[in-house]
Amino acid sequence: MIKVTRLNGKSFHINALYIDTVESLPDSTITFTNGKKIVLLEKEEEIIQAIIQFYRTVNVLGLRDDEEERL
Known about the structure:
It comes from Peribacillus butanolivorans. By secondary structure, the protein is an alpha+beta fold. The protein has one domain. The chain contains two helices and five strands. The strands form two sheets. A three-stranded antiparallel beta sheet has the order 3-4-5, covered by helices on one side. A two-stranded antiparallel sheet has the order 1-2. A hairpin with a 5-residue loop joins β1 and β2 (about 10-15). The longest helix is centred in the C-terminal third of the chain and has 14 residues, at about 45-55.
């Protein structure tokens, strides 16, 4: 799960595994695999980094944080 913030300032968590696309339109917009969209305060790059960190935490990318330090 990653923490995000709606334009009204309300924070919540979403499951990053269901994210299809992240765009800046100009506000950051996430489209989920079911077609639902949400607009967020966070910048696109911040969201991408949070997704990557989540994937590393659950080992989806096959590369843990401690392994990255050795590269």
